[in-house]
Amino acid sequence: MRRAGGRGTSALLTLMLAACTGQPAPGPVETGDLLIQNARLVDLSGETASIRERASLLVRAGDIVAIGESTARFDAPEVLDAEGRTVTPGLADMHVHVWDEAELGAYLSYGVTTIRNLSGMPFHLSLQREVETGERPGPRLLTSGPILNSAGPNAQVNHKIVEEAEAARAAIDWQAEAGFTRIKVYSNLRREAYEAILAAAAEHGMRVTGHTPEGLRRSGVPLTQPFAIAFEDVLDDGFETIEHVESIVWHGLRDRHDEDAARELGRRIAAVGVPVTPTRVAHHNLLRMAESDGARAQREEMALLNPFVQGMEQGVIAFWASQPSAPLAANDAFQARVTKIFQEEGVVLVAGSDAGIFINVPGLSLIDELTLLVEAGLTPYEALQAATWNAALAVGEVDEHGCMAEGCAADLVIYACDPLIDISCAGDLTGVVRAGQWLPEERLLALRAAAVDEQDIARTQANLFAGLEAQGTPLPGLPDD
C-alpha cells in the first residue's frame, strides 16, 4: 500500500496540460478527506460479486461520496494507492459479548467495523457514544439491553430473571428509559413473561433478538415431551435475528439429526423472513476443547480474551476439555449441514462469533466463523456477504452499511490477498478504513497489542457489578485470580 501525492497535485497537472495543448480544462475536481486509488472494489449485495477493477473511491466526512475509474477527477489530502488489492465493506460480527473498552481494538484489528453486543449493560451505552463521537477508536457498537430470562437450566449470573408479565414489562421500561433499542430474550422465558416482553417492546419501538424462548422445561423435553413454547409459535414474532444453529437444532428440531426436517424448518424460517446467526464457531470451539484436552484454551490469541471472563469461565473450560469428542463431532457436523441447508432454502444468514465468552477470541473468532461457513458449504462470497450486506439487511441499514456505493459509510477492509478465492485471506489485512479514517496495518497491530496491554480486571468487574445493580440482579461471588 503506497501513499500518493497530497491535495491539488493531480488538479494542477491537469490544468497545466490543458494550457499547453490549448484544450479546454475539464470540469471541477471533486474533493474529499481520503482518496483510495487503484483499488479492486467488491460489492457484496447481489447473488454474485460485482467487482470494479482499478477503481478510485473518495471519502468525505466518514462516507463514500464518489466512486469512479482510475481517471476520475478526485482529490484529497490523504491519497492511498491500493495497488490493485481487494477492498470490501467492513465486516460485522452480529453476536459478541463486550466486557471492557480494551476489547474494541481487537475487533478493528481483524477488519470488524461493526459489532452487535448481545448482553448489554449501562457502560455499553457510554462506549457507544464515545465511539460515535470519535473519542474512542473502535467498531460501530450496536447493543441489546441485559439478557431477559426466567429461572431454569440456561439461566446465568448476568441475566435479568423475569417470571411473570409485570416484572417483564418493568424490565423493558427500564431498558427503554436507559437508552437501549433492542432486547435479547433467552431460552427459559415463560410464556407470560415472553408475551409481555413482546408487547412492551412494540410499545417502545424496540427490536427483539436472541434465543427462541422454550418456556418451563419439563421432564422428557425435547425427545418425549414437547416444549412449553413451540419453536413455530415464535417464528412470526418479528425477531431481528434468531441466534445459534445449535439452539435451533435443539428447539426447532427437538435435537433430532433429521436433514429432511431441517430442510422443512429452513423453508418455514425463510418464509417469515427472519435471519439466522449460525455462530458455528461457538459450538465448534467446544469440539476443539474436547479434541485438544483443553490445550485450545492455552493458545497465544487467548490473551485477547478478557482475563476477568477467563477467570469466570474456568469451570466451563475444564468441563468441555474433559468431554469425549465423538458426540460433539457428530453434533458439529450436523449443525454444519443444517447451516448449508438453511442457506439453500433461502434463509438469510448473518455472521456472528459469540466472541467474548468461553474461548471465543474477539475479532479472530469472526474470521474463524467465516472459515467454518465455507467448510459448511457456502462460497467465500456467501460467507463474506453474511458478514456485510446480510448483517445490514438484518438491522435495516442497507442504505448505509455493508455496501460499496455512494452514500455508504466509509467502513472498509483492504486485504493482502483475495478472500473471494481463499476465505483465510479475510484475516490478512493491509489496512482498514473506519468512519473515513485510514488505519494502516501497523496501526491495527498496535490496537491489537493494546487490547491485551490495556485490560483491567477491576474495571471489568466494576462494569459487570454496576450493570447487575442497575438492573436489580444480586451480585455474584468473585472468581479466583
Number of strands: 20
CATH level-1 class of the largest domain: Alpha Beta
Q: Flag low-confidence runs.
A: 6-19
Report helical residue fraction: 25-40%
Major β-sheet profile: 9 strands, mixed
Question: Which percent range describes the beta-strand content?
Answer: 15-25%
Distance between the termini: 44 Å
Mean pLDDT reading:
94
Apparent shape: globular
Rg value? 24 Å
Q: What is the CATH topology assignment of the largest domain?
A: TIM Barrel
Number of helices: 17
Number of domains: 2
- Class by helix and strand content? alpha/beta
Describe the structure.
The chain is an alpha/beta fold and 481 residues long. It has 2 domains: 2-84, Roll (Urease, subunit C, domain 1), CATH 2.30.40; 90-397 and 455-471, Metal-dependent hydrolases (TIM Barrel). The protein is 38% helix and 18% strand. The strands form 6 sheets. Strands 1, 3, 4, 5, 7, 8, 18, 19 and 20 form a 9-stranded mixed sheet that branches. A 3-stranded parallel sheet has the order 9-10-11.
